[in-house]
Amino acid sequence: MRWLLVKDLQILRRSKLLVGLLVVYPIAIALLIGIALSRGPDKPRVAFLNQVPIGQTTTNVGGRDVDFTDYADQFFDAIDPLRVRTREEAVDAVESGDALAALIIPPDTVERLNGGLGQAEVEVLYNGDALKQSFVEATIDAELARANAALSRTIGEVAIEDLRILTEGGEIATPLGRQTLLGLKRARDVLERSLARLPADAPERDGLEQVLRFAEQALIGLDFATPALRAVSEPIRVRATVLSGSRTPLDAFAVALAVAVSLLFIAVLLASGVLALEREEQAYGRLVPGLVSRAALLAEKVVLAAACSGLAALAMLCGIGAFTGVDWGRLPLWLVALAAGALGCSALGVAIGALAREVRAASLLGLLVALPLAFLALVPSGAVAGGVHDAITVVNALFPFKPALQALDAAVNGADPGVWGPAAHLLALATGYGILARVALRRF
Amino acid sequence: MTKRFGDRVALRDVSFSVGEGELLAVIGPNGAGKTTLLSILAGILRPDEGEVSRPPEEIGWVPQQPAVYSKLTVRENLRLFARLEKVADPDAVVARMLEQTGLADRADDELGTLSGGNRQRVNIAVGLLADPPVLLLDEPSSSLDPRQRERLWEFVDGLAREHGTSVVFTTHNVAEAERWADRVLVLADGEVLFTGAPQALHRDAERTGVDFETAFVRFLRAQGH
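Structure tokens for the assembled complex are given below, as produced in the milestone run.
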């Protein structure tokens, strides 16, 4: 096996273009996927026209000043604003493609919010293809929903404070200015004290007792009203609990993904290519009758491809680690994950090489298998129908990419389910693909 | 030996022996089973029935297409196979083979840069590295020019006569078989039609005044092929 390894390394050393492509291509794909995953989409460019007169952007909600320019600032965080001065400019910007959409705040918006003219409205104009429209629509809807929610929360808080004053007593803002309220509890106390001083047969007692019952019923009712108002201002509160799956931040996951993609491509293409080369060079018929056993030949190709792909992936991981905050203390786990991943992917490669029998066919088949595997491993469970996801899960379990990605994610980022489970899975797959390759060699 | 590929019988009850230092030519039309026969002798294919008395380790195999690595140099190819053959002194054997095949001056050239004839010489040299008692040559001269062909057969003839190597070769060039082989084995549709000295097959040609190739074709037609 040693001399075959030396021979293959000599051939690789003389195939500089091939080796260059073999390294550059997967790294380029890996980086593209990594960048696409770790960076969100660019902010949509939206024309913005605020027709509310300057100085009239503030409204008073229950004595609390609310400035709508605060909501506009939040909105500008989510879009790339193109400020325009008239509606015509906004329409032109959208029609010419300078902006994907235009958001127009009519002049009476604040007035409407103050309650004089009914529900406030904003106008949105869209342009662009369906995908962009959908994206910008979702962005604007989300920001408007945030603004609505913030406003509703403010109104809710004011209402809750007013209820508290109504119950406990205190100062309240009214259109006539600030007023001092006695409060239901104090009113109840006053009534109870008054009733206690009255003779049992006093004619006022009946009326006062009715007022006292009303005060008590009102207090009970208002006790229910406060949580109800809180619920209205924030109907659903999220309490997030991750039961299973990766909790790795997207940036850190992208590192593991980029390395796993490189590992897969290099291992599969190299292993399938060097095995198919034995047949293409006609050397297989000279080697196997007595010089090398078929199993040893396969083992040599797996070791070669695993070593080359593992080293390339390790170099890539170290390179990324030099610029990002990876935990170097986990290096031994990296090596375990890389070794297991490289063995699994290389075994898949020799199976492909044994089935394809020609270098070009093996390379094509390797690409055809590797590319979908990389993307299938990224399909989240809720993104497709249950049956389809079950099928994808089975496919991912039968091929080494997903377990290699899990092992690397665990090794680099400490993600669940740890390194050892996926590593064992990879070794089982390596054995299976080795057997498949050995069977395929019968017709090699 | 009998060999089947599915329903097709590639070889049917083929049996023959080769003596020490003997040159046996296997001739026959395309699809006769010549390469299948040599592949079984080399241990690449297994017969469905029958056996080969020599193990593959004792048989040197020179396939029709050069079975060497085009990205390696001539010397690297020879050294690789010498090491795989576990010869005692690989470097000495490589030097001897380079000398014998006249490739010493191209020893450090990549095989991919050599002519077809020179590649075939390396191909044959690899088959001889372990000094096997039996050598199989599958159409060894098909890609050689007349001068190279002459040198090849002189070399192979020397192996048989001087080293006692038993040589079995296939060829489409029946004149070559007539000139260099001690015996010919005529194979058609997987069956042995004739085994014997070329002269025996040639008697008809001598009687009618036709050449050996014409006599061979007439023989095949007479046998229904």
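The two ends of chain B are 21 Å apart (CA to CA). Strands of chain B lie at 3-5, 8-11, 23-27, 59-62, 134-138, 166-170, 183-188, 191-196. Further analysis is deferred to the final report.
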